[in-house]
């Protein structure tokens, strides 16, 4: 098994692990049980991994973190909107 193949397998598994949460959140619109701080830190970390992958020219790292950044950002934005809506109601 080549190193890149292992990277692609890891990338596929970790990236697709976000799909069930994104699909559920988009369908229900419910983000009450999701931690804003956790997703904020996750998005920042994934963006940093993406930058690292770009600097290395490591395609498995770039692909995995680019897609994960998109998926995690969707949830983060939905959570942020929920927080803002809650403040307006107060």
Automatic annotation (TrEMBL):
Membrane topology classification: Multi-pass membrane protein
Localization, UniProt: Membrane
Membrane-spanning parts: 6-23, 35-52, 58-78
Broad class of the protein's primary localization: membrane
Keywords linked to the UniProt accession: Membrane, Transmembrane, Transmembrane helix
Presence of keyword Membrane: yes
Keyword Membrane attributed: yes
Entry-linked Pfam families: PQ-loop
NCBIfam families in UniProt: SemiSWEET_2
UniProt protein name: SemiSWEET transporter
UniProt source species: Vogesella aquatica
